[in-house]
């Protein structure tokens, strides 16, 4: 049970028993594993589902677009709501939505129904992400958050690394339906983990800026969809025009709001801002690397085995090193992240300029180790500045920044690959990593 609140520095946290705190963390970690599986799974099944279910083929990509778009759109709103109601209940409801839509997706009669279900699942995922972070920040004081986000980094890194393999294995084992059912079962396990936990609710007297949260969601969702996916030119133009219009209205709304939905005060904290950019830079490097390394392998005639080894060097460290990273980050977090960003830059340059096959593997390993040693570290460093009463909103803004930077980096990389060739694909993420290193080095 909750025993009250405790002052920790400038922050308040709920005082729970050790068992209840561990259960809060367990539920949040289980839920964290679902999101990468859902993304990789949805992406993997699009061709098969489009061929099997009735409906226009153009709806196929929206299985992924709907999920990503609504996740981005709902994230800040979910964070604001999580901070104003029972955090535990809100988190559980989000996982129930994810579980229910996952099971129903397996029985979708047509593409339109499946797109609608995946869109609803994106809202549920936003509730899970915001609610889980809000719970964790409510029970762990700032000085313990580095360790906690080390566990989060380990789970997230493992899910990202193993997600594509798991999706393919599930499709081979039980067809595309199983790709939706298994993450649904994991989300249900997270719901079970919340049974008997205290509500973790605090009274909020500030007015609720619904208009600001909705407009912010429109801006982010339109930007993510427009830059993150290969859509027709007219569609992208319409999305970007909508994003610009919504952003203009958003600025006016936030200036007049007594309590703006966007926590601008957090963005004014140099460390929060710098680590938000850094985590987006790392994710951009990972996503682009997953696309570029197989192409570089083909150019060097390394075959399927060589491509698999390159991808393993890039991804496996993220399953092994996050807990080590959390220990290093206790004293040298800024140095660790800055060095890792610069190492990513140097590795990207080596991959793009060298014809040496051994150097290709070394550079891929350097990327993998740099990403693995920083998985979860920026999160813990940034979110230590967030008071627990605003944990949902603070974590949502951090995640939104990461997603936006990742999406824009991917869009820039796709542009250079299209205009030149695969060897230029890492220019954009390298530039973003260099920028993030500079911002982090200056921030205090």
From TrEMBL:
<feature type="transmembrane region" description="Helical">
    <location>
        <begin position="24"/>
        <end position="47"/>
    </location>
</feature>
<keyword id="KW-1133">Transmembrane helix</keyword>
<feature type="transmembrane region" description="Helical">
    <location>
        <begin position="210"/>
        <end position="231"/>
    </location>
</feature>
<dbReference type="Pfam" id="PF07690">
    <property type="entry name" value="MFS_1"/>
</dbReference>
<protein>
    <submittedName>
        <fullName>MFS family permease</fullName>
    </submittedName>
</protein>
<dbReference type="GO" id="GO:0022857">
    <property type="term" value="F:transmembrane transporter activity"/>
</dbReference>
<feature type="domain" description="Major facilitator superfamily (MFS) profile">
    <location>
        <begin position="1"/>
        <end position="444"/>
    </location>
</feature>
<keyword id="KW-0812">Transmembrane</keyword>
<feature type="transmembrane region" description="Helical">
    <location>
        <begin position="302"/>
        <end position="325"/>
    </location>
</feature>
<feature type="transmembrane region" description="Helical">
    <location>
        <begin position="332"/>
        <end position="351"/>
    </location>
</feature>
<feature type="transmembrane region" description="Helical">
    <location>
        <begin position="426"/>
        <end position="443"/>
    </location>
</feature>
<dbReference type="InterPro" id="IPR020846">
    <property type="entry name" value="MFS_dom"/>
</dbReference>
<feature type="transmembrane region" description="Helical">
    <location>
        <begin position="89"/>
        <end position="107"/>
    </location>
</feature>
<feature type="transmembrane region" description="Helical">
    <location>
        <begin position="274"/>
        <end position="296"/>
    </location>
</feature>
<dbReference type="InterPro" id="IPR036259">
    <property type="entry name" value="MFS_trans_sf"/>
</dbReference>
<feature type="transmembrane region" description="Helical">
    <location>
        <begin position="178"/>
        <end position="198"/>
    </location>
</feature>
<feature type="transmembrane region" description="Helical">
    <location>
        <begin position="237"/>
        <end position="253"/>
    </location>
</feature>
<dbReference type="InterPro" id="IPR011701">
    <property type="entry name" value="MFS"/>
</dbReference>
<dbReference type="GO" id="GO:0005886">
    <property type="term" value="C:plasma membrane"/>
</dbReference>
<keyword id="KW-0472">Membrane</keyword>
<feature type="transmembrane region" description="Helical">
    <location>
        <begin position="148"/>
        <end position="172"/>
    </location>
</feature>
<feature type="transmembrane region" description="Helical">
    <location>
        <begin position="59"/>
        <end position="82"/>
    </location>
</feature>
<feature type="transmembrane region" description="Helical">
    <location>
        <begin position="119"/>
        <end position="141"/>
    </location>
</feature>
């Amino acid at each position: 049970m909750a025993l009250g609140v405790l002052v920790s520095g400038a922050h308040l946290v709920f005082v729970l028993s050790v068992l209840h705190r561990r259960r809060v963390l367990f539920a949040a970690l289980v839920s964290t594993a679902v999101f990468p599986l859902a993304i990789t799974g949805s992406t993997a099944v699009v061709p098969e589902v489009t061929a099997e279910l009735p409906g226009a083929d153009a709806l196929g990509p929206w299985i992924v677009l709907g999920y990503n778009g609504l996740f981005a759109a709902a994230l800040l709103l979910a964070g604001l709501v999580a901070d104003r109601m029972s955090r535990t209940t809100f988190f559980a409801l989000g996982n129930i939505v994810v579980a229910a839509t996952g099971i129903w997706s397996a029985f979708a009669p047509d593409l339109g129904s499946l797109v609608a279900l995946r869109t609803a699942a994106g809202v549920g995922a936003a509730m899970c992400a915001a609610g889980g972070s809000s719970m964790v920040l409510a029970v762990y004081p700032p000085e313990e958050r580095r360790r906690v986000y080390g566990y989060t980094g380990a789970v997230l890194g493992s899910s990202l690394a193993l997600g594509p393999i798991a999706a393919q294995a599930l499709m081979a084992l039980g067809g595309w339906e199983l790709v939706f059912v298994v993450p649904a079962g994991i989300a249900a396990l997270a719901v079970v983990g919340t049974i008997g936990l205290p509500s973790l609710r605090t009274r909020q007297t500030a007015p609720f800026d619904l208009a600001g949260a909705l407009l912010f969601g429109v801006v982010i969702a339109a930007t993510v969809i427009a830059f993150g996916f290969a859509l027709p030119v007219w569609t992208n133009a319409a999305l970007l025009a909508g994003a610009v219009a919504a952003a203009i209205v958003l600025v006016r709304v936030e200036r007049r709001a007594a309590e703006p939905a966007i926590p601008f005060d957090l963005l004014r904290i140099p460390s929060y801002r710098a680590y938000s950019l850094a985590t987006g830079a790392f994710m951009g490097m990972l996503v682009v690397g997953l696309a570029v390394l197989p192409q570089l392998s083909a150019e060097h005639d390394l075959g399927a085995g060589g491509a698999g080894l390159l991808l393993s060097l890039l991804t496996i460290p993220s399953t092994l090193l996050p807990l080590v990273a959390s220990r290093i980050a206790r004293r040298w977090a800024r140095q660790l992240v800055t060095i890792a960003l610069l190492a990513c830059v140097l590795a990207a340059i080596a991959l793009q300029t060298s014809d040496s096959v051994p150097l290709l593997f070394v550079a891929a390993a350097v990327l993998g180790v740099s990403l693995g040693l920083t998985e979860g570290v920026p999160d813990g460093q940034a979110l230590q500045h967030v008071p627990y009463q605003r944990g949902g909103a603070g974590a949502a803004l951090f995640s939104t920044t990461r997603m936006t930077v990742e999406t824009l980096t991917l869009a820039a990389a796709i542009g250079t690959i299209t205009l030149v060739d695969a060897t230029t694909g890492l220019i954009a993420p390298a530039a973003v990593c260099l920028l993030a290193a500079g911002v982090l080095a200056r921030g205090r």
